[in-house]
Design a protein that fits this description.
Layout (H helix, E strand, L loop, with lengths): L20 E5 L2 E4 H21 L6 H21 L4
Helix pairs in contact: 1-2
């Protein structure tokens, strides 16, 4: 009976996480996790208002959603490598 050979391979180290930086404000970039948190904070209040008022919304809620739209647009432009 022969003994099994001991493996000579070594474990590979986990790949380093790629840091994705997204634009938030003029000369301010944040990582993707923080971006998602801020986007969620911006979206929840206007969306809750729409839900409670059966579709109607305040102009301030509309403004928040439009700001959110442009933040998402610029983040996608960055991810697509367009700037």
């Amino acid at each position: 009976m022969t003994k099994a050979k001991k493996s000579t391979t070594t474990k590979r180290k986990a790949a380093a996480k790629k840091k994705i930086m997204l634009p938030w404000a003029y000369k301010e970039e944040i990582n993707a996790e923080e971006f998602i948190r801020r986007v969620a904070d911006m979206a929840l209040e206007p969306l809750n208002s729409m839900e409670n008022m059966e579709g109607d919304m305040y102009m301030s809620d509309f403004r928040e959603l439009m700001t959110l739209k442009w933040k998402l647009y610029h983040a996608l432009q960055r991810l697509d490598g367009k700037y």
